[in-house]
Amino acid sequence: MAKIKIKQVVSRINRPARQKRTLDALGLHKLNQVVEKEATPQVLGMVNTVRHLVEVTNA
Asked: Residues with Cβ < 8 Å from 36, sequence gap 6 or more?
């Protein structure tokens, strides 16, 4: 599987609890934090849910 890098670029303040839980599930807890994940359908779906808060690049 391909790897992707996910970076949180927008604050989680004033976001719905569901989006906060999705960021937690992705391992993002701070602004500008970067995590590397496998590009599975589950991860891509989570990224799509919070696409306005994160930036995605290929690893």
From this structure: 3, 4, 5, 6, 59
Residue ranges of the alpha helices (H) in the chain?
17-26, 41-49
Per-residue pLDDT of the chain (59 residues; tens, 9 = 90+): 899 999 999 999 999 999 999 999 999 999 999 999 999 999 999 999 999 999 999 98
Residue in this structure with the two tokens 């906060």, named with its chain if needed: 20
| Contact indicator for 43, 10 with CB cutoff of 8 Å | no
Q: Which residues on neighbouring strands pair with residue 7, listed in sequence order?
A: 34, 55
Q: Quick count: other Cβ atoms within 10 Å of Cβ 58?
A: 8
